[in-house]
């Protein structure tokens, strides 16, 4: 381990994830803020992710025996201390110099699962080293974006396997970036010294010469966008379980299940890709109805409160992931900030469980949700 994250105090007055967000706005410059906080286009999906949780109501039971309660759950053959994982977020050194290594330390401290982005700004081996020796750590997964060079992809997957990553999360909802107006207005640029270091050495894509009538999107950029057959190829390349991240349609969930994949993550990329998609909370029940029980279904998008986690579990989610909130924690107080965000969310989840009369997550069910 060559990078020990700084120990930083949590700024006073921060008691919720929303407080972390407010404080992070004063810490991050306009460039980083546009990147981390923004959604696609009019940010309708970004807002829908949040409001869907707010609109859902809980239906508590009273006088139940809560002795021995806990937040433990099973996922891909492991017992997790709680069902909260950190979603892949690119370029975390833009939020704090300790970047993804700080995030990994915090995840290990709090027993949270961690999914490292292909576009991480620190080497995947350094991040794994920060986590693997910790007894209480959660799962460590590598998020994978298909690249144009198969040989490079194979080597990247092998590096992740050798470093100790336990699953590959293929993000399938972003063959193109969304329309990122906030970033364009802020003239977003990666600051000097920050890059996708794990993609260093990727040979440049062969040049494409477009005639004036051709499309840069369809005739160039999308030429290497993955399809279902590329997922099959990946199954042949790795022995690790593969999860698809960005599934929003029950037919795609069915295909994933038929291919024997390790799981799916219901996600709209935190509202950063296709604007006006529904909230993840809104589509989850259809997907659960079709493949629930066949493979683990995780969810992300707009989770900001312990009650949101509880509602996701009540819908049938195996676990949830958070994206932006832990980046706010990272910006505010490095590893301690990420750890604080996780602890706040888990404490809130425990309180919500207790107040709903659920001693364990197995006791949380559709009956925990109020039906109008
Ligand atoms: C700044 C930022 C960068 C992201 N980078 C990636 C990425 O590299 N790979 C990926 O699969 N998802 C990426 N995501 C999406 C997250 O993994 C996750 O789906 C989303 O943030 C969840 O929504 P939330 O931010 O409301 O919690 C990114 C999200 C944000 C906000
Ligand atoms: C570099 C990007 C493709 C990472 C990403 O997924 C995002 O910014 O949402």
General description of the model:
This protein has a single domain (17-194, 223-368), classed as Alpha-Beta Barrel (TIM Barrel), CATH 3.20.20. 40% of the residues lie in helices and 11% in strands. It is built from 13 helices and ten strands. The chain starts with 16 loop residues before the first helix and ends in a 16-residue tail after the last helix. The relative contact order is 0.21.
Overall helicity: 25-40%
Order of helices and strands: HHHEEEHEHEHEHHHEHEHEHEH
What ions, cofactors and ligands are bound? Answer: flavin mononucleotide, 2-OXO-4-methylpentanoic acid
Provide the domain count: 1
How many β-strand stretches?
Answer: 10
Question: Over the alpha carbons, how many angstroms does the gyration radius reach?
Answer: 20 Å
Cofactor: FMN
Active site: 269 (proton acceptor)
Binding site for glyoxylate: 35, 145, 180, 269, 272
Pfam family, one: FMN_dh
């Amino acid at each position: 381990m060559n990078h020990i994250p700084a120990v930083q105090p949590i700024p006073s007055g921060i008691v919720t994830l929303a407080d972390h967000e407010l404080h992070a706005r004063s810490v991050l410059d306009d460039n980083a803020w546009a990147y981390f906080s923004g959604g696609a286009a009019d940010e309708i999906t970004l807002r829908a992710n949040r409001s869907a949780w707010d609109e859902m109501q809980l239906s508590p039971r009273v006088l139940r025996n809560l002795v021995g309660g806990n937040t433990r759950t099973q996922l891909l053959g492991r017992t997790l201390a709680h069902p909260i994982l950190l979603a892949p977020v690119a370029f975390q050194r833009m939020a704090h110099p300790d970047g993804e290594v700080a995030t990994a330390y915090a995840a290990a401290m709090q027993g949270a699962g961690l999914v490292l982005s292909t576009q991480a700004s620190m080497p995947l081996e350094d991040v794994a080293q920060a986590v693997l020796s910790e007894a209480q750590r959660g799962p460590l997964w590598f998020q994978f974006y298909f690249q144009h060079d198969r040989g490079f992809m194979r080597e990247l997957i092998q590096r992740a396997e050798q470093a100790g990553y336990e699953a590959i999360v293929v993000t399938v909802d972003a063959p193109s970036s969304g329309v990122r107006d906030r970033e364009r207005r802020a003239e977003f640029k990666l600051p000097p010294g920050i890059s996708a270091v794990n993609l260093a050495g990727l040979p440049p894509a062969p040049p494409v010469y477009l005639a004036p009538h051709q499309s840069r999107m369809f005739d160039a950029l999308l030429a290497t966008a993955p399809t279902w057959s590329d997922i099959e190829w990946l199954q042949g390349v790795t022995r690790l379980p593969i999860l698809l991240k960005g599934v929003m349609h029950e037919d795609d969930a069915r295909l994933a299940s038929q291919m024997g994949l390790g799981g799916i993550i219901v996600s709209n990329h935190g509202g950063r890709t296709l604007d006006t998609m529904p909230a993840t909370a809104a589509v989850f029940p259809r997907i659960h109805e079709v493949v629930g029980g066949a493979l683990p279904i995780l969810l992300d998008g707009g989770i900001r409160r312990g009650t949101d986690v509880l509602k996701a579990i009540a819908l049938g989610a195996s676990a949830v992931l958070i994206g932006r909130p832990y980046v706010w924690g990272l910006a505010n107080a490095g590893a301690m900030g990420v750890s604080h965000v996780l602890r706040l969310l888990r404490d809130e989840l425990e309180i919500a469980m207790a107040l709903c009369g659920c001693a364990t997550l197995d006791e949380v069910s559709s009956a925990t949700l109020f039906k109008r």
